[in-house]
Amino acid sequence: MRPISELKDRALMSLSGKWVAFVAMTLIMVALEGVFSTVGRWFLPETKTVLSMSELLPTTAVLGLSGTTLAMLLLFVPLAWGYQVMFLKTSRSGGDPDVGELFAGYKDYWRVTGTHLLMYLYEILWSLLLVIPGIIKMLSYSMTGYVLRDNPELSFNSAIERSMWLMDGHKADMFVLYLSFIGWGILSVLTCGIGFLWLLPYMQMTMTKFYEALLEEKGAQMAQAGVAGI
Description:
It is a single chain. With 230 residues, this protein is an all-alpha fold. It has one domain (4-214). 71% of the residues lie in helices and 0% in strands. It is built from eleven helices and no strands. The protein has helices at 4-15, 19-43, 70-93, 99-102, 109-127, 131-140, 144-150, 157-167, 171-179, 182-190, 196-228. α1 (4-15) crosses α11, α3 (70-93) packs across α5 (109-127) and α7 (144-150) packs across α8. The radius of gyration is 17 Å and the shape is globular.
């Protein structure tokens, strides 16, 4: 695995010259989250859940809302996934973010939403044991969104298992990567949340570089195994 500092440097390089576009996309996502939350409360005003967006996609942790309704989830999950994989396309092509990619999850609604809801259910079940197993599983499942983007034939358990395979031996690396953004998160809070419009793209692009590093490493391992005749 590449050093975290290198992944963050690569993320900044990919974001160079594109900050305005990514901040705009982040603002759209945050605004729509607010709209969906309001709509959810209209339909299920008395329904409270323990679900937070931070448990769906790690990059939306700073936008977490306790008491999010089921209606909010069903509306927001495809958008959050689209936001996540939008960075993957930009990382690979070097182009500007595509607003169409932001809404791509609604074109593949049931596969994307169903897989993420199943992933969350697993996290809940593991968390019933203790908090730490739940955190470990969240880290293990953290590449599921990217897997869905790169493997349209996979869904549900298959996509989650692929994420677990990719993250095998790297959950601690991902945890340290999350911790490396704490200082930036505190500074963003001090700006009344405005700083998150820049922090979220930085975090998400770094997570994307992490995923690409995992693919690179696994590919090398498989090639080596093939040469060795394993």
